[in-house]
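User: Show me a protein chain along with its predicted structure.
Assistant: Here is one chain, sequence first, then C-alpha cells.
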Amino acid sequence: MATSDDRRPPLKGTPDAGSRESGAPHPEPSTLRREARLARLALDPQREASLSDDLVRILAAFESLQEVDVSNLEPLHQPLHASLAEPLRHAAPTDPAAAGTSRRDSRLAAPDPTSAVDRARLLEGAPEPIDGHFGVPRTIEQ
C-alpha cells in the first residue's frame, strides 16, 4: 500500500500534484469514487488520495501537451496495420511524378466496394476468435 513517503515525484515539466496553481483540472473526489466504482475497484481512503494525486499529475502532463507547437507537423494516419495494408498497396509507377501524386498518396489503392479483406487473415492476430469473430471478455454480468 502506498504511503505519502513513497509517492512518486511529479512528472517532468508538471506541477506537484498538491499544487493547485496549474491550469490542469483537479477532479472532485466524488468523480474519482464514481470512476472507481465503474471500474469495480474498492478503494480505501489512503489509496483514493494516492490515485487522486496520480490523476492530477496525469492531467497536468496532458495539459502541458497543449503548449507544444505542432503547426508545422504533418498528421500521422495509419487506418490499417501495415501487414493488413499490404494487399492494398498501389501498383502505380515508382516515380511519384509519373503517377501525378505524392509518394504518400500513392501507397494505398482507391477503395473498392466489391473487394473484402480476408477474414481469416484479420483473425490471425485475435487472441480468442469465436465462430469467425473477435472474441472479447464479457463486461456485463447477466
